[in-house]
Amino acid sequence: MATLKLNKNAPAKKTAAKTPDGERRAPLRGKGVSRPRQTLEQAQAERQQKQEAFEQRRRQEEAPPPRRSNAAPQNPGRNTAPPYDRGNAPAPARRSAPAPRPSFQREEAPYQPSPPPRRDQRRATGPRMEQQQRPPREQAVSPNVAEGDRLSKVMSERQMASRREADEWIGAGWVRVDGRIAELGQRVGPDVKIEVDPRAFKEQAKQVTILLHKPIGYVSGQAEDGYEPASVLIKSDKQWKDDASGIKFNIGHARGLAPAGRLDIDSTGLLVLTQDGRIAKILIGEDSDVEKEYLVRVEFDGEGAPMERFPEEGLAALCHGLELDGVQLKEAKVSWANEDQLRFVLREGRKRQIRRMCELVGLKVVGLKRVRIGRIPLGKLPPGEWRFLSPWEKF
Question: With CB atoms counted within 10 Å of each terminal CB, which end of the chain scores lower, N or C?
Fold first, then answer.
């Protein structure tokens, strides 16, 4: 029987590392056998081989495919038919001429325009094309339109309202013609009965008229040549402290004010600004006959007071006999207020009328002030201040 002897002095064999649970642990990476490092010549040779393999593979991919031959492949093991002999073939049968085709004559139908496209099938230019092809639509004619003058003109002639106010009242439904509600643009005869709702007169009563003592340097209407309009002076702090109208100013009173008449930039005096079209018609309408009084300071060539040296014939010409722009002026009242000041009373208001009249008779105007319009005087109203026209005051 063999016995096994243990050599206690022999070195112990290395065993794989184990985990605490008794399992073998995998060897750590990088601890195995490493590849020996190449020399420079070996690396260059390997790179050259790879480059040649790549070039060969690319040439194979870029090479054109082989052309197919039209010759029949020779297959000795396959029975092939003898070649076709054209001389032994029967002659082909002659084809008969084709039968003539029946002619069909198309009947021409009368032209009918294509129906318009449906709304959901129109293109972007459809509505415009439809608008061009659509026949003109007949204008609706109101049954109330008849021969005669416009209703607003008739109301203005009857002193019921200005044309602008009449149109506003008609649009609001406050005007009746022969018992029927009027329409804008309606024409009426001269004998119609016109009735106005009392509400229209209440609205008209809320409109105000302002009397301003315009100073020099302001224009009457719209701003021009860098000069401000006189309406910029209508502020609460410019209201005359002795205003007896009893009307309290609010911002609405400054809206829609229109000058009823004009004063030049270098003239001063009474200027009327109003929201009421009736007052504007009375003062500057075509048939206006309201007097306007002016004080005009003049100069005459030579020494001494103009009143002593100005001839009576020139004063008579100022009263009646002058023309402006080829139009005969209405008769005026001109008299001396003092030795160098004339008093003009006119019933018309042409552009720079008084200055041009004085130039025609040799007088030079150095100052002009309007002191009265109708029965409303300027009074003690200071320059640059204004007051309301009282309800009891009439021009």
Answer: N
